[in-house]
Amino acid sequence: MKPQIKLLALIFFLGVCQTSAQTLIQTVRGKVVDHISKFPLPGASIVFLDTEPLLGGVSDGNGDFRIPGVPIGTYAIRVSFVGYRDVILTQVQVNSGKETILSVSLEEDFSQMQEVLVLGSDKDRTVNDMISVSGRTFSVEETRKFAAAVNDPGRMAASFSGVVSTDDGNNNISIRGNSPNGLLWRMEGIDIPNPNHFASPGTSGGGISILSAQLLSNSDFITAAFPAEYGNALSGVFDLSLRKGNNEKREFTVQAGLLGTDIAAEGPFSPNYKGSYLINYRYSTLSFLSKLGVPLGDFVTNFQDLSFNFFLPIGEKSTLSVFGFGGLSDQNRHAQKDSLNWSGDFDRYSSSFFSNTGAVGIKHAYILNKSNFLQTTLLASGSGLGEKYGRLNNEYQNEERFYEDFGQSKITFNAVLNTKISPKYNLRSGVFLNQLYYNIHEKAFDEDRGRMQTHIDSKGSTQSVQAFSQLNVRASERLTLNMGLHYLQLLLNNSNSLEPRLGVSYELDEKQRISMGYGLHSQVQPLGTYFAKQEANGEILLPNKELDLSRSHHVVLGYDRSLNSYLRMKIETYYQHLFRIPIKPGEDQTYSIINQEWTFMTDPLVNRGLGKNYGAEFTLEQFTHRNLYFLLSASLYNSLYKTEENRWRNTRFNGRANLVFTAGKEYHWKKNRVFGFNLRSIYGGGLRNTPINLEESIAKGETVWEEARGFEEQNPAYFRTDIRVSLKRNRPRSTQTLSLDIQNISNRKNVFGSYFEPMEGTVKTAYLTPMIPILAYRVEF
Length: 781
Fold this sequence. Notes:
Elements: H1 3-13, E1 25-34, E2 45-48, E3 55-58, E4 64-71, E5 73-80, E6 87-94, E7 100-106, E8 135-138, H2 140-145, H3 153-156, E9 163-165, E10 173-175, E11 183-187, E12 190-191, E13 196-197, E14 208-209, E15 219-222, E16 236-240, E17 251-257, E18 260-268, E19 276-284, H4 285-291, E20 299-313, E21 318-333, E22 349-367, E23 372-392, E24 398-420, E25 425-446, E26 451-474, E27 479-490, E28 495-507, E29 512-523, E30 534-536, E31 539-541, E32 550-562, E33 567-583, E34 606-625, E35 628-642, E36 648-650, E37 657-668, E38 673-684, E39 688-689, H5 694-700, E40 713-714, E41 718-731, E42 734-743, E43 751-757, E44 762-767, E45 772-780
Parallel strand pairs: 1-7, 11-16
Antiparallel strand pairs: 1-4, 2-3, 2-5, 5-6, 8-15, 9-10, 11-12, 13-14, 15-16, 17-18, 17-45, 18-19, 19-20, 20-21, 21-22, 22-23, 23-24, 24-25, 25-26, 26-27, 27-28, 28-29, 29-32, 30-31, 32-33, 33-34, 34-35, 35-36, 35-37, 37-38, 38-41, 39-40, 41-42, 42-45, 43-44
């Protein structure tokens, strides 16, 4: 065993303390509302299953309930109300450090039966009831438990069917063979910018999430055929919900780890007011160590972030929320002015990178009556991403080689009206108005001209409009239909798309369900692509300004079966037809924006590309039962694209197959202590690369790709195993958790791709992230 691992293991097990014989208790409380109108449901029954004596309570006139004196542990809770379908909340964690606060929404039973057979649990359904296919909910507990997920939704999602991580060093994910850039991030019902540190221009991921798990509530992840309310995305949607802070008691969480130190606080604004605050701040541990003088290698990496949610009731039927996040991150490297220390051409480069982003929103929710619920939100968001680097010449003088600075900001207004027409019919309609501002610049060294060449230089503003309407029809006790339309228009060039969406779900019996989904989806190009500059006869042209939206037809067919109350099997097959995809014109060109993973393409493009993704997925999932959970996800898929050469090629992300096994077991060790072991193992086909032309690379002194052989090389098979061990101890007024995550515990050298090394005149292999141990300690009180 390596010395580092021995040390970490020793630190971990030093957290084991003496047994406490005291029985610890906590309060469980919350609110029960109608799923559509959010109208409170007084008199709802809340019962803890399999408890002796029986624990439970009833909601009051405002839908609130309180159950004091609940022994710490994990429970299943049934919530029921006359005329509504029961819900069973599984794996409700009750710890001594914080009160457990639940938000429960019930669906009306249009048959008006007194008792409804309940199969499955809250894990079987998404938060958004209009998702018919390719969607699942995920909880904060999953982001915490999954090995090497480190409270990051993007890294956690790599355990799900159809999802492939494209780089161990960040949380970019490819969904069903699509580019990571096809992903949409949404928070509290409104679109937000990429919420990740160390994000490159044009990407939807980054090094680590800005959003703290301390703020997240149960949220949805969708991988195809989205309902009509989601637009401007081709591959997937993270629809994040924020929890409200405790409005009766002040509570705190402190977490210190190798990634960062978090401090979270929540509580009421005043004793007689039902409003609450929830705020989290994190500062990079590496930054702190660097300031103390600890040597951390060539790169100096810094980040910090702040996220918050303020809940402000302003009447019996009206609430106001102020929420947001902000993150600052940068990375700097300085080349040594000593050629004896250079092992490769990379050592001659100095670089400076920054990635800053944030958003602040104000949401007003108003219960018009028992049938109508209106939500309006105003969000201001922005990001600033940039990088510059230079190369030391033989005289140790720095020569500028690359510069980019992309500033984008947006003001978004949205209004969504939920209407319960009857127990059978629910209508949701809304509009999104976006005012976009941009200030983007990029220039790079041109080897042929021997000087820096400007590629993008633009400043201005534009607008986009989105509108949708969707109808949920519960045609019978077994058949549910979701149908709608979405409209998207970019006013920069008036490109637009009207998109029909349809979802069908039919319960064959109490254990089986089949589903089908169709949707036409479109997406605006990365904004910098529209402003690529080209010089012709002394005139500056913008050849990409009139680019159309990229589009895709999604078709999904699924089958769900509950093998028992805690074990579920799911099969889905899908086909996606992508069209109007920007490509380089010409029968000898192989570039398509489908393969773009970061930065902006600055060459002239045309919307004549095609793509297709198809495959089948299998999921076998055991929700936690007897302290054991597991998730087996298997995917077989094909991802192809076509340019004007009229030939189908593999995309960058066509690994063909992916298999992921995620599992965890908790052991109740002594009194009030829980030892957890979690595992994730991934095996999949390697991503694809374009070969390097060695002779031309030597001649030019830089990498030259064999563009005519686009993505014809495939990396070796990818394999990685992560583990997580944790020890949680409940004390009378606190809960403490010591954890150790190890990513890539076998230290396997998975291949990322190849690069040309000018100093040696050879092609070398670039590898993904080696073994990374992440130690953390969290206390809640």
